[in-house]
Amino acid sequence: MIPLCSPSQACLPTAIALGSFDGLHAGHKRVIKEITNSDKGVPTVVSFWPHPREVLYGESRLRLDLPSEKGALLETLGVKQLVLVPFDHYLAELTAEKFFNEVLINKLQSKRIAVGANFRFGKNREGDPYVLKKLCESADLELSIVPILEDAQGRMSSSRIRSELKQGNLKATKDLLGRPYIFRGLVIPGKGLGKTIGWPTANLQVDGRKLLPGIGVYAAWATKLNGKNKFPAVMNLGPQPTIDPLAPSAVEVHLLNQEIDLTQNELIIEPVKRIRSQKKFKDLNTLSEQIGLDAKIAQEILSKI
Ligand SMILES: Cc1cc2nc3c(=O)[nH]c(=O)nc-3n(C[C@H](O)[C@H](O)[C@H](O)COP(=O)(O)O)c2cc1C
Ligand SMILES: Nc1ncnc2c1ncn2[C@@H]1O[C@H](COP(=O)(O)OP(=O)(O)O)[C@@H](O)[C@H]1O
């Protein structure tokens, strides 16, 4: 696993790809290729953490991939380190030129930089690729500005992937990511009702910074962390209006045709297809029958893959 470090811990000198790279889609990969195929320094991805919009506007920003997941993805692309620059109000006040000199030149000793054509940096986002080009020329640094990649539906972007995911379009999400969307969670106790209605569920505690699909019932694969078997499963992601309409959304999976104790396990979940929305049923029997139908549909969906 590549190191995830602060600027002062980085291996120097560096060849830097700058950006959030959330989702690491094909457009991001083109930018990253510009630093992994050079001998100008340690291939390094540099991102801000937290996201500037979280610090400046108090927006909560959920991620397609968390820093801990990103390391493994970047490693496969030939990146050697992920540097997270702590974004705070001091950093937000740095002009583009100061940021360039203090962080990229002095701290990270960068010899080569790659960014996407829409990259902005420095106070009030004043630095664009043109400004960066001037700065790189005067410091004798190599620079690649990579054009924005498009497909028939438009620009490749993290927000487009996020939007597909929020709508529960897992196929479109997978196509855009170039890999299945996954998340992980620790199995924690629920209300203990699942077994009594014939459908025990592993309730998952998921890192609150991870973006999840929109609420609904899904067919999904479930794998134990470091396990080999992929279990077909049905997932309830959202409310449980029949038993507790006011409770916060749950993430729970029932592994099809399995009777296993999953307590304290970490599960990796790959949602595959949205089946339906949650409903309030007149009683637990009707809910249980519906979950039976969901399980059948999930089995069919997953057996075709
Ligand atoms: C596939 C699946 C679909 C579900 N759909 C609904 C639903 O539409 N409405 C609802 O009120 N609860 C739904 N549930 C949630 C159940 O109410 C919940 O699993 C059960 O009460 C057990 O909760 P517990 O694990 O906290 O004990 C669903 C659960 C599963 C596994
Ligand atoms: N097929 C299965 N899918 C999911 N969990 C299962 C399964 N079989 C047994 N279990 C166990 O049952 C527990 C869930 O039972 P349940 O009655 O729903 O209680 P809880 O409220 O803790 O979710 C899980 O934590 C798991 O250890």
From TrEMBL:
- What reaction does this enzyme carry out catalytically? riboflavin + ATP = FMN + ADP + H(+); FMN + ATP + H(+) = FAD + diphosphate
Recall the GO molecular function terms of this protein's record.
Answer: ATP binding; FMN adenylyltransferase activity; riboflavin kinase activity
The family database entries (InterPro entries) matched by this protein are listed as: FAD_synthase (IPR015864), Riboflavin_kinase (IPR023468), Riboflavin_kinase_bac (IPR002606), Riboflavin_kinase_bac/euk (IPR015865), Riboflavin_kinase_dom_sf (IPR023465), Rossmann-like_a/b/a_fold (IPR014729)
Q: Respond yes or no to whether keyword ATP-binding is given for this record.
A: yes
Q: Provide the top EC class.
A: transferase
One of the GO biological process terms = FMN biosynthetic process
What EC number(s) has UniProt assigned to this enzyme?
Answer: 2.7.1.26, 2.7.7.2
Nucleotide-binding found in the keyword field: yes
Riboflavin kinase domain span? 176-303
Q: Which SMART domains match?
A: Flavokinase
The pathway it acts in is: Cofactor biosynthesis; FMN biosynthesis; FMN from riboflavin (ATP route): step 1/1; Cofactor biosynthesis; FAD biosynthesis; FAD from FMN: step 1/1
Q: Which UniProt keywords apply?
A: ATP-binding, FAD, Flavoprotein, FMN, Kinase, Multifunctional enzyme, Nucleotide-binding, Nucleotidyltransferase, Transferase
Pfam families referenced in this protein's UniProt entry, alphabetically:
FAD_syn, Flavokinase
Q: Which NCBIfam families match?
A: ribF
Which family is annotated? Belongs to the ribF family.
Q: What is this protein called?
A: Riboflavin biosynthesis protein
Species annotation: Prochlorococcus marinus (strain MIT 9211)
